[in-house]
Amino acid sequence: MVPNSEVRLFGMWASPAVWRVEWALKMKGIEFEYIEEDVSDKSSSLLMYNPINKQVPVLVHNGKPIVESLVILEYIDETWNDKPILPVDSYERAKARFWATFVDVKCREAARKSFFGEGEERENGIENLEIQLKALDEELEGKKFFAGNSIGYTDLVVGWMAFWLGVAEEAGDFKAVNSSKFPFFTAWIENFLQDPLIKNNLPPRDKTVEFFRLFRQAGSCAKANVK
Length: 227
Description:
The chain has nine helices and four strands; from the N terminus they run βαβαββααααααα. With 227 residues, it is an alpha+beta fold. A four-stranded mixed sheet has the order 2-1-3-4, covered by helices on one side. Strand 3 and strand 4 (64-67) form a beta hairpin. The longest helix has 27 residues, at 90-116. The relative contact order is 0.12.
């Protein structure tokens, strides 16, 4: 452990990227101060610590900022190196990083198009999202979690799909997750959300659905103004 260290997390309550960092900190038993940001009126502290993309999450450890949630997860794991989040084996660690990138790039983009898109764009988004879900489903066959019998790095990264994808489906009026098509993935969702660490550290669902409805409306208005 790292003794006498000061840890602060700048976040926003509805952000899945922020929650994955919170989960990692709590898995490790790290005490931290949480600072809620108004992303429509960002604080001078956030802009100082993350002047490049001006986004949350930002982890500040002894005055030094670390940005981007995947980078933050690895920093946490390397700095507080007991209770490892990433696999110890180098090959398994490489696999975990692959799936993290796969989910954060391909799955998130397909989900974005499914959520914000209309007509053909939405249909293509859902079709691509189902392709990504199939890949995840195959990876999970015979496993409780991506990491095996307990939650690990990949589970934390994919965790947004356990809660926020369902929120996006409800708020955006589309459906991609199907237990008959993706039985191992839907079983993983249930296992993940029932884990006490996760279950006790999620935003209120109704409030999150309403936030995402408003977020989609704002996105649609922005698209309309561009035309």
